[in-house]
């Protein structure tokens, strides 16, 4: 998918919501546990109830890898379901990969080619040759961790190296990499104060913004400093949406939560 197609979908749906499919079997409604594939059954119900409210889904692969072969199968079925039924929706494999070049090439093949995701999250710290293999795929996107939502972001990312914060160096340096037009960046919603500085370095790139909902980030603040002329934001909420209820009505409850965020977004987009 191109960023133009993503932006068109944002305008059409009045939404830049990304729903995180972080499925934990201890949190899903107990009645699903008797199904042959409870993770996929849960995801399918969530997708069926929310696809008109969001423009992206982001399964975090940890929640699938934790269940071994069965979990990976559920991930495969989820991306196939999305690509078959909602090809206009942007998909993110939140895998946070990155390794020496030939290994990154295999990660890129796994997520962007074999599974068929539109994008994958990648850690930048092994540098250019660890990221460029992901950038080779046409109309696929590499979402580089810039300034993450967690407390630990202050351990390294905001520390100055050669007089400039490390996250700024990641933004600046990565712009010169081959096919860098395929880059997007992760910036946590909990770091709203940093968005203005970030936009000075990468005015046009899409930002994946996790951390609203369960982690307490503020949507309005994020938009005030992070939005660009083409919107340029995908705001993610996982637990705050998918675990709104663990009764039989869980999918409708998730849709209600997604709608609350979408309506806030619509107001912001139309102001
Ligand atoms: O790459 C991410 O998506 C990510 C980066 C980051 O800085 N912080 C962050 O929370 N995430 C992911 O975004 C999701 C947030 O989930 P909730 O806090 O439940 O909305 C999880 O899948 C996290 O792994």
From TrEMBL:
This enzyme's EC code(s): 4.1.1.23
InterPro entries membership: Aldolase_TIM, OMPdecase_type-2, OMPdeCOase_dom, RibuloseP-bd_barrel
Lyase in keyword set: yes
Pathways per UniProt: Pyrimidine metabolism; UMP biosynthesis via de novo pathway; UMP from orotate: step 2/2
Keyword Coiled coil tagged: yes
Pfam families cross-referenced by the UniProt entry: OMPdecase
Domain Orotidine 5'-phosphate decarboxylase, chain residue ranges per copy: 16-254
Coiled coil: 244-271
GO BP annotation list: 'de novo' pyrimidine nucleobase biosynthetic process; 'de novo' UMP biosynthetic process
Annotated keywords: Coiled coil, Decarboxylase, Lyase, Pyrimidine biosynthesis
N-terminal signal peptide: none
Active-site residues, record numbering mapped to chain: 96
GO terms, molecular function: orotidine-5'-phosphate decarboxylase activity
Catalyses which reaction(s): orotidine 5'-phosphate + H(+) = UMP + CO2
UniProt-listed HAMAP family: OMPdecase_type2
Family stated for the protein in its record: Belongs to the OMP decarboxylase family. Type 2 subfamily.
Protein name (database record): Orotidine 5'-phosphate decarboxylase
Species, as recorded: Gelidibacter algens
């Amino acid at each position: 998918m191109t960023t133009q197609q993503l932006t068109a979908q944002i305008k059409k749906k009045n939404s830049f919501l990304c729903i995180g499919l972080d499925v934990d079997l201890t949190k899903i409604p107990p009645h699903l546990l008797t199904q042959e594939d409870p993770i996929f059954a849960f995801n399918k119900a969530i997708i069926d109830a929310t696809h008109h409210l969001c423009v992206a889904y982001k399964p975090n692969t940890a929640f699938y890898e934790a269940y071994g072969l069965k979990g990976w199968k559920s991930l495969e079925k989820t991306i196939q379901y999305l690509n078959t039924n909602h090809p206009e929706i942007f998909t993110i494999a939140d895998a946070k990969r990155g390794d020496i070049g030939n290994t990154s090439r295999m990660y890129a093949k796994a997520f962007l080619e074999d599974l068929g995701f539109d994008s994958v999250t990648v850690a930048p710290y092994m540098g250019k040759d660890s990221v460029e293999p992901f950038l080779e795929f046409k109309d696929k996107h590499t979402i580089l961790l810039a300034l993450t939502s967690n407390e630990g972001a202050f351990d390294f990312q905001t520390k100055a190296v050669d007089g400039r914060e490390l996250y700024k160096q990641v933004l600046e340096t990565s712009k010169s990499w081959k096919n860098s037009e395929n880059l997007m960046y992760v910036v946590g919603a909990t770091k709203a104060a940093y968005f203005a500085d970030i936009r000075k370095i990468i005015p046009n790139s899409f930002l994946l913004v996790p951390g609203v909902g369960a982690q307490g980030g503020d949507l309005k603040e994020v938009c005030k400093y992070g939005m660009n002329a083409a919107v340029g934001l995908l705001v993610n909420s996982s637990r705050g949406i998918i675990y709104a209820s663990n009764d039989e009505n869980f999918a409708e409850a998730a849709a209600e939560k997604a709608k609350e965020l979408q309506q806030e977004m619509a107001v912001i987009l139309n102001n």
